[in-house]
């Protein structure tokens, strides 16, 4: 508090004595503070303000207490919609805000309960998270995290505006559906495609779907059934990704599969001559922990035989074909398949789905028809959306955030 001192001086010719009178509030002055003279009051006031500022800066925030920890078998992806990320479970030092990490994907590795009584707050649920590249880690209040399929999360790639306002349909089996070997995730590669391409994606994939005629094992998501049930005039882009279930579970021949794939592509093009189609070859599978590329399956062909056959059909129909061995040979290997597959055999983990989507998005951009590139693009933020025709298992997170986190 500023202290004002009133100095009254009475000079008499007779006595030559100066009388000093102190103010009435002098008794309330901090006893450790020296009473300044009038000539130094300004500098002292400035010093007092500076000291007060330093005191506030040096204020120590007490650490919160970790109550319990639950590790996840598989980390799932989120983005921050608000709030802060803290460096430790003590929650007394921030790494940054949601704005600082607007384009970062966070994977939740643990759910923790933290008691913030020491900080004047209650007990709440937090996630221990790592950035997609593994360079940042920290703790985020669960209500400040949002599923990647929800909210505003602009991570659109360069030239993704080729797909501006386009509507995409993805067709395929469990891998396109986002199945991880145990449950169907919201964060399969079609969901990531919607983000990377900044557009709308309808996922028509189905767990266990087949390229060819599967008889009693047929599903509503088989290629022929999906093509017959879909109005392709409503879509601008379609992706096809089948084959692994035919290799593993049917005795259809290579020629039969080629014929079915060819006829369906021609039907799609007849229904919509401007439809852009992309073909994705099957990824390597590890039945009995063995690389299937050169193993003969039930139909009398290897996985590499199947890939070559599908690739030939796509090329004959002028459809760009994504071969994982060319686009990203290190995606699934003998050395990493246990980690990259959530079941260790065939179905990708959540982080692998993101890697796949990034490769697919880049491939689609690089192979977009030059004559269909739009002349003008909008500077407005793109709206992205992914819909699934099949029921999926959803993660539950609170969407109500407050400024205290």
From TrEMBL:
Residues that span the membrane, as ranges: none
Span list, region Disordered: 29-54, 375-405
UniProt superkingdom: Bacteria
InterPro entries: Ester_Hydrolysis_Enzymes, SGNH_hydro, SGNH_hydro_sf
Domain SGNH hydrolase-type esterase: start-end pairs: 171-355
Signal peptide: 1-26
Annotated GO MF terms: phosphatidylcholine lysophospholipase activity
Residue ranges with Low complexity bias: 29-50, 385-405
Keyword Cell inner membrane found: no
Keywords: Signal
Protein's name in the database: G-D-S-L family lipolytic protein
């Amino acid at each position: 508090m500023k202290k004002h001192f009133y100095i009254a001086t009475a000079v008499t010719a007779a006595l030559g004595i100066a009388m000093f009178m102190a103010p009435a509030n002098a008794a309330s002055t901090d006893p450790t503070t020296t009473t300044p003279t009038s000539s130094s009051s300004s500098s002292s006031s400035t010093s007092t303000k500076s000291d007060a500022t330093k005191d506030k800066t040096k204020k120590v925030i007490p650490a919160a207490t970790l109550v319990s920890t639950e590790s996840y078998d598989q980390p799932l992806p989120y983005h921050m919609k608000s709030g802060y990320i803290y460096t430790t479970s003590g929650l007394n030092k921030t790494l940054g805000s949601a704005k600082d990490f607007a384009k970062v994907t966070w994977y939740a590795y643990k759910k923790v309960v933290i008691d913030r009584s020491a900080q004047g707050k209650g007990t709440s649920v937090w996630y221990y998270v790592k950035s997609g590249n593994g360079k940042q880690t920290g703790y985020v209040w669960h209500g400040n995290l949002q599923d990647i399929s929800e909210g505003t999360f602009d991570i659109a790639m360069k030239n993704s505006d080729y797909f501006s306002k386009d509507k995409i349909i993805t067709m395929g089996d469990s891998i396109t559906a986002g199945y991880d070997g145990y449950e169907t995730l919201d964060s399969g590669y079609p969901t990531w495609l919607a983000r990377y391409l900044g557009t709308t994606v309808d996922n028509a994939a189905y767990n266990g779907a087949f390229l060819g005629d599967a008889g009693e094992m047929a599903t509503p998501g088989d290629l022929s059934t999906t093509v017959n049930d879909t109005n392709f005039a409503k879509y601008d882009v379609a992706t096809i990704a089948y084959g692994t279930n035919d290799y593993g579970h049917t005795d259809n021949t290579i020629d039969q599969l080629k014929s079915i794939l060819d006829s369906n592509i021609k039907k799609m093009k007849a229904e919509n001559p401007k439809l852009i189609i992309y073909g994705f070859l099957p990824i390597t599978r590890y039945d009995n922990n063995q690389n299937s590329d050169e193993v003969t399956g039930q139909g009398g062909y290897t996985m590499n035989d199947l890939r070559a056959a599908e690739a030939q059909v796509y090329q004959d129909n002028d459809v760009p074909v994504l071969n994982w061995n060319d686009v990203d040979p290190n995606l699934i290997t003998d050395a990493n398949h246990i980690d990259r597959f959530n079941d260790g055999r065939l179905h990708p983990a959540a982080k692998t789905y993101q890697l796949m989507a990034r490769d697919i998005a880049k491939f689609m951009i690089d192979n977009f028809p030059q004559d269909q590139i739009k002349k003008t693009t909008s500077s407005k933020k793109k709206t992205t959306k992914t819909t699934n025709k099949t029921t999926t298992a959803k993660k539950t997170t609170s969407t109500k955030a407050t400024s205290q986190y």
